[in-house]
């Protein structure tokens, strides 16, 4: 495939697919439709609970897929000692936050499901970091570990129905609202201060980990901290140290996610363009025993960033007349295409088409009539 003829977003998708294949991930293909019941049972997991549904000819209620991960879980198997590694390049159908209308959105990502170990965690984060580099040279991967905050809330005796509000305050880094809510539910000032301190922690891994290890309440259960430290050390050794930060505002629904979660940012995009994490709890909700970790790259958030800068629809418009034979015209078009150009052969100069070069076929020769830089 000649990548010079691809749009910028197509080049990025191509690069991501090649990256995942290089690490042994196979492509997962799914139908546009899934049974609606799969999504309605897990509506809280979806980014939007607006789902396009229709009735099949057999009377079964189907949905246009709003998500890929649920389908992958449904169609994978629990096999001891085995890890299934898949990537996808699929359109999903969701309501746009901007227009509030349904959009067809391209999503690229991968899932690692099965007997997950420390290497699996490292590999997925390594691929997340490399994915950001495929998009832009400068990227940042923010990492957190849900076990740290979850463990604190458990030890502090915070009821499960109150934890969602605390997670929300932490995600927004809103220490004021966090303090107000903790007071409302009767949490002591000392415990509230610990949660506020954790909320404010972000930055280079060595700095953040050193501060975590100075917090007695956190180190009552040191396993999540040490797992996070080992992962950051591995990423540093793998050459990704300049991209990694620890930030506890990276949160996900703890009913579905556990352990390591992360978001990716690139220069020029206002929001995260990649997000993922461990979702063992979602696996349990779907009756599975395996572990799982994965991420998605949101191509819709990259639209403006990856807009083609060439400013034209086709490189060359080649004009021809009735005297041109099919074989001569075909040869001329093939020669131009071999130069890496996109070519449109037309009898007349087309309207509403932007082109860089206007040429005419005269006998066996191509004459350039207009050419823009």
Question: How would you sum up this structure, described in words?
Answer:
The protein starts with 7 loop residues before the first helix and ends with a strand. By secondary structure, it is α+β, with helices and mostly antiparallel strands. Strand 10 (258-266) and strand 11 form a beta hairpin. It is built from 13 helices and 16 strands. The protein has 2 domains: 3-302, BirA Bifunctional Protein, domain 2; 314-371, no CATH class.
Main traits of this protein?
373 residues; alpha+beta; BirA Bifunctional Protein, domain 2; 2 domains; nine-stranded mixed beta sheet; four-stranded mixed beta sheet; 13 helices
The CATH topology label of the largest domain is BirA Bifunctional Protein, domain 2
Rg to the nearest angstrom?
26 Å
Low-confidence stretches: none
**Helix and strand element order:** HEEHEEHEEHEHHHHEHHHEEEHEEHEEE
Just name the CATH architecture of the largest domain: 2-Layer Sandwich
Helix count from the secondary structure assignment = 13
Report how far apart the termini are. 25 Å
Helicity range of the residues? Answer: 25-40%
Mean pLDDT: 88
Query: Order of strands across the biggest sheet?
Result: 1-5-6-12-11-10-7-9-8
Beta strand %: 25-35%
Total of domains: 2
What's the overall geometry?
elongated
Main beta sheet, described? 9 strands, mixed
Number of strands: 16
SSE-based structural type: alpha+beta
Based on the structure, what is the oligomeric state of the protein chains? single chain
Query: What is the CATH class of the largest domain?
Result: Alpha Beta
CATH superfamily of the largest domain: Bira Bifunctional Protein, Domain 2
């Amino acid at each position: 495939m000649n990548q010079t003829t691809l749009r910028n977003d197509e080049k990025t998708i191509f690069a991501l697919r090649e990256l995942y294949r290089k690490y042994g991930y196979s492509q997962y293909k799914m139908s546009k439709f899934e049974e609606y019941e799969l999504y309605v049972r897990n509506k809280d997991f979806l980014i939007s609970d607006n789902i396009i549904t229709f009735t099949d000819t057999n009377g079964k209620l189907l949905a246009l897929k709003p998500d890929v991960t649920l389908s992958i879980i449904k169609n994978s198997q629990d096999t001891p000692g085995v890890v299934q590694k898949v990537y996808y390049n699929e359109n999903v159908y969701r309501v746009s936050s901007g227009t509030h209308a349904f959009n067809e959105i391209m999503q690229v990502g991968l899932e690692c499901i099965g007997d997950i170990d420390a290497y699996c965690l490292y590999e997925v984060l390594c691929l997340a970091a490399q994915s950001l580099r495929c998009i832009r040279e400068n990227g940042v991967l923010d990492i957190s570990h849900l076990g740290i905050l979850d463990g604190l809330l458990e030890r502090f005796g915070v009821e499960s129905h109150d934890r969602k509000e605390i997670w929300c305050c932490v995600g927004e880094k809103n220490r004021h609202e966090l303090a107000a809510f903790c007071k409302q539910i009767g949490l002591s000032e000392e415990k509230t201060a610990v949660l506020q301190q954790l909320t404010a922690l972000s930055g280079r891994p060595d700095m953040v980990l050193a501060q975590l290890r100075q917090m007695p309440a956190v180190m009552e259960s040191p396993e999540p901290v040490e797992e996070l430290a080992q992962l950051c050390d591995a990423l540093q050794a793998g050459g990704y140290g300049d991209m990694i930060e620890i930030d506890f505002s990276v949160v996900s629904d703890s009913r579905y996610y556990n352990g390591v979660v992360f978001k990716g940012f690139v220069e020029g995009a206002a929001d995260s363009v990649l997000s993922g994490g461990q979702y063992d709890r979602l696996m349990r909700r779907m009756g599975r025993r395996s572990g799982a970790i994965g991420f998605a790259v949101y191509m819709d958030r990259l639209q403006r960033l990856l807009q083609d800068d060439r400013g034209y629809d086709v490189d060359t418009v080649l004009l021809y007349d009735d005297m041109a034979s099919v074989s001569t015209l075909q040869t001329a078009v093939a020669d131009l295409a071999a130069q890496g150009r996109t070519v449109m052969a037309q009898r007349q100069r087309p309207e509403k088409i932007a082109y860089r070069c206007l040429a005419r076929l005269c006998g066996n020769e191509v004459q350039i009539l207009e050419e823009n830089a």
